[in-house]
């Protein structure tokens, strides 16, 4: 089995720093629950001092999630650390994660502090954090561009002050595997008290090397990897959790290590994160992309049919991809549908929700012959993660063509009143969005719109993701239907309902 590698998931903190991503408390809790099922050792739930929303989210995760360590980020300042502790103190296993930059460029131009001041600040604030919380991690931001001799001194000082974990981030994604491995080895050999702490790594993907760098660090003594689902994170993102974990598993011969991640939960976790963040996964993404286990060429297909290992180094089942041979359709009953929901991991759905999902399934079966697992998931995810529907879209009707101005009429129910409005726009989707804005009285800025086919075939479902901005906040929502204007209208009204819900239920 070898050495245990701790998986520190930062989807909810660094991952939330992905441009255009903003998660509310319920969404963060849902992801944290799934990370717990996935078997992450540490969940970094947020940066409590950064905003009230972040504080409440970290607190909610600390109160509700048992099993993994719950970490909260804090700069090396008393206010940050106090706020982090206020949110984390409810956790079964809390961790304060405090950081300060140690590279010359950051100390001079960002912090405007002398190296001795940074060293002293790191030491005193780790000591302070440790007086509050039994478990403390220290990060030397921009470590890979830090003079090694100075970094050794800082690491020695923070371990002496009580740090349990020392993190060596490649903050700007600058290093390379050979160089980073040697850097970690240098720390191991030069910091006298290094055996009293765990070495952690946190790599950004600016040069596409985050996973390779993290693995090089493992080979040189690091024991914790900070990573995010689907590789989310600041700029080009962080090391992708699924890639790190599956490499350690698939090449355990080389790494002589293991993680406690339940790899069969990877696909489900990846889909959930993509759904809630609105960040789509590229088809050729390793491990979780739609093509990751697809064999296109005849030679490959032939090889796999004869002996799977000819072209498959890991099985689709090992990451939780199951191919169901029984396809559901119009004649399938509630029992078969419920059974399939359970197999897909929706075993916590209760009576009303199942009824509602079953009706949606029947409606779809009238329009589409074979209903795949992807179709069912697309329908059910809508429902599970939907806020209560204050505005209900009763109908919409549009006229459009290549030589006329598109117009759309919508009827929306709100609090027992029905409102009908019409609008013109650049195409039927734009006209429908404008009519919905008029009818609900909520105007937003459309930041992003994507349309994706779920499955294949002419009758495939169209899944629309919209990201809208209201009062500086981003809300993402989805809608699915066999008609793309309807998917768009559903996604847009779902986003409006989210805005309404969170305006009335303080985050
Ligand atoms: O990239 C980075 O350096 C960070 C630290 C705060 C760990 O995210
Ligand atoms: Zn980072």
Automatic annotation (TrEMBL):
User: Is Cell inner membrane among this UniProt entry's keywords?
Assistant: no
EC number, as in UniProt: 2.3.3.13
Pathway involvement of the protein, from the record: Amino-acid biosynthesis; L-leucine biosynthesis; L-leucine from 3-methyl-2-oxobutanoate: step 1/4
Instruction: Report whether Repeat shows up as a keyword of the record.
Output: no
Which Gene3D superfamilies did the record assign? 1.10.238.260, 3.30.160.270, Aldolase class I
The top EC class, named as a word, is transferase
The coenzyme or cofactor needed here is:
Mn(2+)
Residue stretches making up the Pyruvate carboxyltransferase domain: 5-267
> Which GO terms are recorded in the biological process aspect for this UniProt protein?
L-leucine biosynthetic process
Residue numbers spanned by region Regulatory domain: 392-507
The record's PANTHER family line, in alphabetical order, gives: 2-ISOPROPYLMALATE SYNTHASE 1, CHLOROPLASTIC-RELATED, HOMOCITRATE SYNTHASE-RELATED
Q: Which family does it belong to?
A: Belongs to the alpha-IPM synthase/homocitrate synthase family. LeuA type 1 subfamily.
Q: What is this protein's function? A: Catalyzes the condensation of the acetyl group of acetyl-CoA with 3-methyl-2-oxobutanoate (2-ketoisovalerate) to form 3-carboxy-3-hydroxy-4-methylpentanoate (2-isopropylmalate).
Q: How does this chain assemble?
A: Homodimer.
Q: Which HAMAP family match?
A: LeuA_type1
Q: What is this protein called?
A: 2-isopropylmalate synthase
Species annotation: Clostridium magnum DSM 2767
The protein's gene is named leuA_1
